Amino acid sequence: MTENTEMDPGLDPSAAAEPSTRKVDRGAVREAGRFGKIINAGGFIFAVAICASACILLIEVFLRYVLNSPTVWAHETTTFLCGISFLYGGLYCASRNSHIRVVLIYDILPSRVRRVFDILISIASFIAAGFFTYAAWIMSEKALFSPVGDFRMERSGSAWNPPTPALVKTFLLIVMILMTIQFLILSWNYIRRVTEETK
């Protein structure tokens, strides 16, 4: 059996010659830099958090329905672990360039125009992430400080009453700061790639 190596006549030859940065290859895209590699490696921790939350739920089912002795912490712990994992997931996808998007127009563009669009998309994402970071700061400030300025972590108000709301909002702020930095790095590296190719 032979592999068909004939190129589609509708494809740009230069696009076929170079690997697409949109493909996920077990890690962060090249333009994400070392920062992206670190973010990508950190995903393992949050994958473990998802598995831990599943284990906690299994233990809770056993305690509740077999031993008739439910815990007060299982539900909020699993919600917290899943919540921070989903928040990190956005940053993780940004470093891998694997976030959900509509590529109907992008996919039909020539590769050189795509490179320009990569720059514009990254800059727009950087600006948007900056605004979301500011909004996350306002939210986390209210969750960490009382109206008079005293340090007071917002709590859930349940029987266990952990400070998970404050922790989640603070983690969101950290993720948004990191995401803003990641989009800035992506923008810079996409610009650098285009300028190097035009030389």
From TrEMBL:
Residue span, Tripartite ATP-independent periplasmic transporters DctQ component domain: 54-189
Coiled-coil blocks: none
Topology of this chain in the membrane: Multi-pass membrane protein
Keywords assigned: Cell inner membrane, Cell membrane, Membrane, Transmembrane, Transmembrane helix, Transport
Transmembrane segments: 44-67, 73-95, 116-137, 170-191
Positions of the UniProt region annotated as Disordered: 1-25
GO molecular function: transmembrane transporter activity
GO CC field: plasma membrane
Main subcellular location of this protein, as a coarse class: membrane
Subcellular location: Cell inner membrane
InterPro entries referenced in this protein's UniProt entry, alphabetically: DctQ, TRAP_DctQ
Subunit structure: The complex comprises the extracytoplasmic solute receptor protein and the two transmembrane proteins.
PANTHER family registered for this protein in UniProt: 2,3-DIKETO-L-GULONATE TRAP TRANSPORTER SMALL PERMEASE PROTEIN YIAM
Family of the protein in this entry: Belongs to the TRAP transporter small permease family.
Record's function text: Part of the tripartite ATP-independent periplasmic (TRAP) transport system.
Protein known as: TRAP transporter small permease protein
